[in-house]
Amino acid sequence: MEILGLVFAGTATPHRAAMAAFARDVLGLAPDDGTPYADMFSLPDGSGFAVSDERVPGGGTSRTIGFLVADLDAAVAELTAAGADVEAPAANDSYRYAHVVAPDGALYELVERR
Known about the structure:
Layout: E1 3-12, H1 16-26, E2 30-31, E3 38-42, E4 48-52, E5 62-69, H2 72-81, E6 85-86, E7 90-91, E8 95-101, E9 107-113
């Protein structure tokens, strides 16, 4: 698998509204069209920042980053063959992506531009 860059950083938190307001009003990040599950912000270099609710209720705040890959299906197959815990790919208007739990126990995403 070839990692081409970083697409976004994200936070999942029980304080989504306050964190989204902080990103917009204090950090000055430009809001994008969000989704029901995340507030999205654009950065000048084309990357993004996402603020979502907790991934698991009661799980507290966690972080994730999105690694850009050229071929998501090949990357998922490679990670699965290596024994990684990878979720099935999902999609939104801009990306196809898959969550993976790395050996450090943290959540990461592999992202393919549509």
